[in-house]
Design goal:
Layout: H1 2-14, H2 16-25, H3 29-39, H4 47-54, H5 59-63, H6 68-72, H7 75-99, H8 102-116, H9 124-130, H10 138-163, H11 168-178, H12 183-190, H13 194-206, E1 210-211, E2 214-215, H14 217-233, H15 235-262
Antiparallel strand pairs: 1-2
Helix pairs in contact: 1-2, 1-7, 1-10, 1-15, 2-3, 2-7, 7-10, 8-10, 8-15, 9-10, 10-14, 11-13
Length: 281
């Protein structure tokens, strides 16, 4: 479900409309706009809270953007900018015919039902986004529903990482090894130093999770357990709508995601390791 719908949400960060809108408010660089747009539902959150909830970003990277962004504009202003930018991006990427289709309206309704069924106890980012007013346009309802669902899944993933005793940088080291990602690229994207990355690698080796060849059998098992735990914690909203509605939502989302990917509204090489359920170019 995440692979089927996440590109609809990801335009928030990958489409140029969001960056341009934030720069109009005075932000500098990609990360300042990213943290402002994603953290805005929390209110004027301090950097410690943002780093804690986002989990795998270096606190120093967060602190270079927060709380400076709230001095440029209130979180409520960034929320309005976020919705307007997503609206503009989806209009450009999908076109009026697709936005106004019966399929879009049906997809929005199913996704909203799932989002409304997502439990938010202990899930701060999901709860903050679930508390926002729903937009009227179906394509924005679909976007907001996926925003709630992906933060719900992300909150659960953090719980799974904590249960596995993986701190933020350790989680990234294992993730890179498991997904054959360039570790230096991922390290830089999340703001960790070479020394911090090396220390985390050493700690994981001491636990028998990594060796000179990469993931050990124990490391692969732990990674699989983390993902299975994440999936289980993300199950309630999908179970609430039932398998037929879930399958229908995946079917309805496919042409939307195909169009988003084809129009460069999605970053194929992304730190999430997300591979949409459509072919990427």
């Amino acid at each position: 479900m995440w692979r089927a719908l996440e590109p609809v949400h990801a335009v928030t960060y990958f489409a140029p409309e969001s960056q341009a809108a934030c720069e109009a408010l005075g932000t500098k660089g990609y990360w300042m706009s990213y943290f402002a747009l994603r953290a805005a539902p929390l209110g004027a959150a301090p950097p410690e809270l943002v780093a804690a909830l986002f989990y795998n970003f270096h606190p120093g990277l967060v602190a270079r953007a927060v709380p400076a962004v709230w001095e440029l504009a209130a979180p409520e202003r960034f929320l309005a900018v976020r919705l307007d930018a997503v609206d503009a991006a989806l209009h450009r990427l999908l076109g009026a015919e697709m936005l106004g289709s019966a399929g879009m309206a049906e997809a929005a309704g199913i996704a909203r039902d799932a989002a409304l069924a997502a439990p938010t106890a202990g899930r701060a980012l999901a709860a903050a986004n679930a508390a926002l007013d729903w937009p009227d346009a179906p394509h924005l309802v679909l976007w907001q529903a996926q925003t709630v669902l992906r933060e719900h899944r992300g909150d659960g993933h953090v719980a799974a990482l904590l249960t596995a005793r993986l701190d933020p940088v350790e989680a990234l080291v294992l993730f890179a090894a498991d997904n054959a990602m360039d570790p230096d690229w991922l390290r830089k994207r999340r703001g960790w130093s070479e020394a911090e990355w090396a220390d985390a690698t050493s700690r994981l080796a001491d636990r028998g999770l990594l060796d000179a060849d990469g993931l050990t059998a124990a490391g692969r098992t732990l990674r699989a357990e983390v993902e299975a735990h994440t999936d289980a914690l993300a199950e309630p909203p999908v179970a609430a709508i039932g398998p037929a509605a879930a399958d229908r939502l995946v079917e309805l989302a496919a042409p939307l995601v195909t169009a988003i990917v084809a129009a460069d509204g999605f970053l194929p090489a992304n730190p999430m390791g997300l591979r949409p359920l459509v072919p990427t170019r």
